[in-house]
Design brief:
Strands 1-4-5-8 form a 4-stranded mixed β-sheet, covered by helices on one side. Strands 2-3-7-6 form a 4-stranded antiparallel β-sheet, covered by helices on one side. Strand 2 and strand 3 form a beta hairpin. Helix 4 packs antiparallel against helix 5. The chain has 3 domains: 114 residues, Acyl-CoA dehydrogenase/oxidase, N-terminal domain (Butyryl-Coa Dehydrogenase, subunit A, domain 1, Orthogonal Bundle); 103 residues, Butyryl-CoA Dehydrogenase, subunit A, domain 2 (Beta Barrel); 146 residues, Butyryl-CoA Dehydrogenase, subunit A, domain 3, CATH 1.20.140. The radius of gyration is 21 Å and the shape is globular. It has 10 helices and 10 strands. With 388 residues, the chain is α+β, with helices and mostly antiparallel strands. The protein binds 3-thiaglutaryl-CoA and flavin-adenine dinucleotide (FAD). The site of flavin-adenine dinucleotide has 22 residues, from strand 1, strand 3, helix 9 and helix 10.
């Protein structure tokens, strides 16, 4: 197979610092050597490559933006580049890292006590403890504010009852960030250790997307959680603060999947002969390649600019929504175009586009569906919320 060549039409590379380039190149090599050769087998078998966890930790990818607590403390642009490279390998690997860092370590860092941070973060940075994030419920996905999971105060504890659905890393997690409503109907969050009585997990096995990722249901039946495990935040802004970071990372990750597909489509079309010519010589095929190439270039500009804004703490949720919505929907389109350019070969595990295509169906749905981000932007520009 021809070595991967990342498209960079506008020489965006020169706008990254030498440290950012070094982080990206290290991850790029890791993905080529350690992920690409085995990921399609994991995908086919529906297994997560747990042997990669120590290496992902060693590379500083877990909770990478957190300062201290044995975390790498890199800037958000570097974090974006890490996500881009990992998702070039597979959305499931990027998901694992997103959830561990942005959705589990970040809330502990932002809303936990000093004791929580010292207890959980170093172990999580080393990959010795895996986390998950329970917001979605069977009946409340796009509308998490309607959640029915309850946290009832009982002396020095809270009693959790309810279920969380479609939870990435659930079956492999030793700790869960769980959002529930308290006695005053306020949304509160807890750090819930997996070994607590009344906390059980069921893996969702039969899925055609994110097969190299663990997706689970978390069930709480009179699960007694010490009040000291409560996070110091109230209302939906708690989970949404975590989602801002994860959605930002996904906007870069999707670019990685797009770039992988484009590279595959370009190489294939230059070598596949039909009607005595490489298919890349046909205008209709070139139009498809140009559409991908142009979208990727625009997506790279958006991601870089957003990264710089995030590093200055200037990225608004609506900015992040635009990047998540557009870069993911484009990536899904690019995976489908690549599948088309590869003809029948595109449906096999020998090529990446089919796997990316099926993964991206989930990525387009989770962390706010494409249409929910469209509505967040609609709210931003008109001032009128159209969710209800
Ligand atoms: P709304 O009334 O708009 O807001 C409620 C409160 O939240 C605040 N807020 C935010 N704060 C920080 N960042 C944001 N992005 C925020 N968005 C809203 C808001 O200011 C308000 O605060 P306060 O103090 O006034 O109470 O909320 P709403 O109930 O009308 O909902 C709006 C809507 C639909 C946009 C929202 O619910 C939404 O984004 N839904 C999508 C749900 C979602 O993204 N779920 C993700 C689950 S986790 C996941 O998918 C992980 S996959 C991981 C992987 O494998 O990679
Ligand atoms: P619904 O909310 O039922 O939406 C169905 C359709 O209706 C969508 O097209 C949606 O856009 C549309 N719709 C809904 N409301 C509106 C509206 N107001 N206006 C217009 N259209 C609307 N959740 C977690 O908490 N933690 C996780 O780790 C996690 N991991 C996931 C992993 C995978 C593989 C998947 C697939 C999901 C994961 N999720 C997780 C859940 C994910 O966040 C939800 O699936 C997502 O928020 C959408 O919710 P839903 O599936 O219930 O769809």
């Amino acid at each position: 197979m021809k070595p991967y060549e990342a498209p960079d039409f506008l020489n965006i590379d020169e706008h990254f610092s030498s440290e950012e380039r070094m982080i990206r190149d290290t991850l790029r090599e890791f993905v080529s050597k350690e992920i690409i050769p085995t990921i399609s087998t994991h995908y086919e078998n529906g297994t997560f490559p747990t042997d990669l966890i120590p290496q992902l930790a060693e590379l500083g990818t877990l909770g990478s933006t957190i300062q201290g607590y044995e975390c790498a403390g890199v800037n958000y642009t570097s974090y974006g580049l890490i996500m881009q490279e990992l998702e070039r390998g597979d959305s499931g690997i990027r998901s694992f890292v997103s959830v561990q860092g942005a959705l589990c370590m970040y809330p502990i860092y932002a809303f936990g006590s000093e004791e929580h941070k010292k207890k959980y973060l170093p172990k999580m940075a080393k990959g010795q403890l895996i986390g998950c994030f329970g917001l979605t419920e069977p009946d409340f996905g796009s509308n998490p504010g309607g959640m029915i999971t309850r946290a009832k105060k009982d002396g020095a504890d809270y009693i959790l009852n309810g279920a969380k659905m479609w939870i990435t890393n659930g079956g492999m997690a030793g700790v869960a960030i769980v959002w529930a409503k308290d006695d005053n109907d306020k949304i509160v969050g807890f750090i819930v250790d997996r070994d607590l009585k009344g906390f059980s997990v069921r893996n969702i096995e039969k899925k055609f997307s994110l097969k190299a990722s663990v997706t689970s249901e978390l069930i709480f039946e009179d699960c007694r959680v010490p009040a000291s495990q409560m996070l110091n935040v109230q209302g939906l802004k708690g989970p949404f603060a975590c989602l801002n970071n994860a959605r930002y990372g996904i906007s870069w990750g999707a670019l990685g999947a797009s770039m992988a597909c484009y590279d595959e489509a370009l190489n294939y079309s230059k070598t596949r002969i039909q009607f005595d010519k490489p298919i890349a010589s046909f205008q209709l095929v070139q139009a498809k390649l140009v559409e991908m190439f142009t979208d990727i270039t625009l997506g790279q500009l958006l991601a870089l600019h957003l990264g710089r804004m995030k590093d200055k703490d200037q990225a608004l949720p609506a900015h992040i929504s635009m990047a998540k919505m557009k870069n993911v929907s484009n990536a899904l389109k690019h995976a489908r175009i690549t599948r088309d350019i590869l003809g029948a070969s595109g449906i096999t595990y020998e090529y990446q586009c089919g796997r990316h295509m099926l993964n991206l169906e989930s990525v387009n749905t989770y962390e706010g569906t494409e249409d929910i981000h469209r509505l967040i932007l609609g709210h931003h520009i008109t001032g009128i919320p159209a969710f209800k």
